[in-house]
Amino acid sequence: MALRDYHLTLRDVSDQQPEYLETVFSLGNGHFGVRANDPISGNPIAGTLINGFYETAPITYGEAGIGYAKQHQTILNLPDLRHIHVSTSSGHQFTHSKRTAADLDLGTGELMEHYQISTDQGETIMMGVKSVIGQEQTSMWSAQYTFTAGNYAGGLLVSKSIAVPAEAEAIMSADPRKTRMAGLPICETEFVTQDLQRYHVKTRLTKQAVTMYLGILLPHGQLLQQPLDLSDEQPHSLEYAVYVGTVGKHNTIDPAAMFMASSLASLTDDSRTFWQGVWTRSEVSVGGNDELDLAIHYNIFQLNQAAGRDGRTNISAKGLSGAGYEGHYFWDTEMYMLPYFTYTNQQMARQLLVYRYQTLPKARDRARALGVDQGALFAWRTINGEEASAYFPAGTAQYHIDADIAYAVGKYFEITRDLDFVIQCGFEMVLETARFWENFGSWRQVGDDCRFEFHTVTGPDEYTALVNNNYYTNRLAKHNFELVVELAHQMMKRSPQLLSKFGMSETDLDVYQNLADHVYLPYSEELEINEQDDSFLDKPRWPAEKSTPDNFPLLLHYHPLTIYRYQVAKQADTLLADYLFPEDLSADQLKREYRYYEGVTTHDSSLSRSIFSILAARMGDSEKAYRYFMDTARMDLVNLQKNTADGLHLANLGGSWLALVAGFSGFYVQDEVVHFANHLPTELSRLTYRMKIAESVLEIDLTADNLDVTVISGPIPTYGVSVNGELISLVKVS
């Protein structure tokens, strides 16, 4: 499969509002992100985001309770690195601008834009901005500004500096997805030389610090004033570079070395090499729909830009494209985004799991705060590992995050056989979450049936809170118990003494297996479907007259207690478990459950449609599979949720990849067999993609009546491979 040339332009997006374009054309590298703000008008509330750089503020409750989250954690909006001051030689400021073109090269990471800028006096010139962010050199960003005469062709004065941010007006909104302000940090700035500015920023409460340097590369001169003359009617360019230091580390740089490493040409080479590696491992080609093909490449591009790579940071709900959801990390990572990395870039997947391991001590503290004496409870929404959800019914009560993280550890090991990671980090997380379930749950005798149950929980469906025996939660907890046993046996193959390292014996494994065998999974005999929870099916359905477009999302129009009274789901819940454990139910039961839960789901969450697409594909309903997939794949490019201005929907981006791979090609792994099945919808003529299984890069190619799997690099894997239910022998392409 040849790597194609992909560019996202203004013609490929549905909205031309500045805040929306800032998000869609943002650049990032896991360490920091730069929104594509208008360099002339700028944006006082959003410019640069550093992954994990945040401030706290006390959460104010009208009636607080024991164990409530105590502090907000909010990612800081740092100064806009793109902003530039331009004036005529007579002092007229260019304060008006119009973006006339934008081109994001998904193969190299370069962003090229054109603006017409003007003064109040009507003088106009053209400005081009070419920018790139380092991918291996993750501290660097560089931009070239090119000025061309318009109806004004005289002298220009151009200046650039990192400005101390002004106090921005707080955004007052009941919408939790919106950007929030965290107050001003402590800022110090100085000019080390006439062409190098040092900017140091420190948070007031978290005591985090980071240092930036801004330098002018070409031509050498002064940051604060660079004269140009457009009278020759030739383009004139200035090139700047920014160094963004590591949070918490003292960063002192050699300006000459920085200039050499951070030129636009150098960073472009760095970025091009990185993206070539990404597409070699995870290229996707969708035949029959060029818009869809571009959208999938864009989604994968942004996933890679957003993921923390250092083991200290993760992927926030909006990535590094915006400050929506305050920059928090959720379960979204493990269930929607991590699978892409697990099957294409296992080192990245490992680092994202290492972040969770780093927060394990705080997860243990959180379990104690909730009255569970053993085990660990990971924070529902967090940056530093502490719980930051101010609304526990739809936050902390989503205990399933423990089992989600354990599930992700299991999938990582299943595909990598990285036993060293299991011994060093993974098993402890799986064990501590299992200990939480063991002490959180309770036994109950119902007739001859002895059940292990979980009460007062909230599942993925945030419109149904504080219920007993949420099916998804119970099914994942069951898997958590089983995974302890499985991973323990894997470690014991290396050394029987390894269990004692964790204070365990083989008798303990029998306890966890017994718990797994007795976890209660609610089932409706009448409807012959898995019940979302003990009470969901007993509630009245959401009134049809309230199901109008003006009333969605429901959470912004109705009190939570109003919503909780009804049988209405925000997103896939029981169906999400059906996707994760396809072996659990027959094709007929899946169809019954899908039909039922589709009828009560609003898809108010961006996490929902990808799961509905996957399951529709598995059922052979290609029309629904394709329809849900289109909403998933192009969600941000068409601004489907109407809030892309606050950042991309990163979990949905991961979900779009899952819908292709797990849906249209039926991919899943079970008992060391990699399964594929052809569910390609008629709207697509071909689907080809790459994934990594152990040390082997596979290419999967689907057409209407064929599915081929070949090895394009690495050894032929020891895993079995099943296509449409039959084991096949793999062929390696020379």
UniProtKB/TrEMBL annotation:
Residues 16-207 form the Glycoside hydrolase family 65 N-terminal domain. Residues 298-657 form the Glycoside hydrolase family 65 central catalytic domain. InterPro entries: 6-hairpin_glycosidase_sf (IPR008928), 6hp_glycosidase-like_sf (IPR012341), Gal_mutarotase_sf_dom (IPR011013), GH65_N (IPR037018), Glyco_hydro_65_M (IPR005195), Glyco_hydro_65_N (IPR005196), Malt_Pase/Glycosyl_Hdrlase (IPR017045). Keywords: Hydrolase. It comes from the Bacteria. GO terms for molecular function: hydrolase activity. Belongs to the glycosyl hydrolase 65 family. This is Glycoside hydrolase family 65 protein. It comes from Levilactobacillus fuyuanensis.
